[in-house]
Amino acid sequence: MPDARIDSDTLHVSRIFDASRDRVFEAWTRKDQFVRWMCPPGVEITLCEIDVRRGGAWRIDGRNAQGVFSSSGVYLDVVPPERLVFTWAHHADGDFAGARGHETTVRVEFRSLGNRTQLTLIHGPFADTEDFRCHREGWDGSFGKLETLLRGAP
Predict the structure, then answer these.
(1) What pLDDT, in 10s, does the model give residues 54-71?
(2) Are 23 and 150 in contact (CB under 8 A)?
(3) Nearest to 1 by CA among 12, 14, 19, 18
(4) Which residues in the chain show pLDDT less than 70?
(5) Is the pTM of this model over 0.85?
(6) Residue 38 near residue 69 (C-beta atoms within 8 A)
(7) Sign of the C-alpha dihedral, residues 53, 78, 130, 38?
(8) Residue-level pLDDT at 66
(9) CA dihedral 82, 69, 154, 24 (to 10 degrees)
(10) What are 107-123's pLDDT values in tens digits?
(11) How many domains does the chain have?
């Protein structure tokens, strides 16, 4: 079970995966893998672009039962295979060209535990409790899919 806590308006999640640090980092930085686990179950990603380098951009478009969405950001720090830091903005109704939603920062750290990896994610600050809750549920669902990918399951 993942460890998650609230530090004011920021989400902290720590999870251990049965895969090497290089393998887990690769799942975050290779488009063909990223698209398979990013976003919780019930979300179909319709577009994925990632340019994993400092100053590079990322974007996902998708749809779920509530409609369409876009999220995007810029990589602020990339230290393979130790750390990724990037911004995260949600675009209302999938309108990528339109106004950006509240922007947050995501910091992901990868710590080697032999053949396992401790992933620590810090995401925030969030504008309100509902935004925090939605992202916590989203990351929990995404990490479940990431675990399946890392086990090699289809």
Answers:
(1) 999 999 999 988 888 889
(2) yes
(3) 14
(4) 1-8, 92-101, 153-154
(5) yes
(6) no
(7) positive
(8) 84
(9) 0
(10) 999 999 999 999 999 99
(11) 1
**Domain membership of residue 49 as a residue range:** 3-150
Return the CA Rg of the chain: 15
Cis? peptide before 81, omega within 30° of 0: yes
Closest CA relative to residue 87, chosen from 106, 109, 69: 106
Q: Tokens 């969405």 label which residue? A: 69
CATH number at residue 70: 3.30.530.20
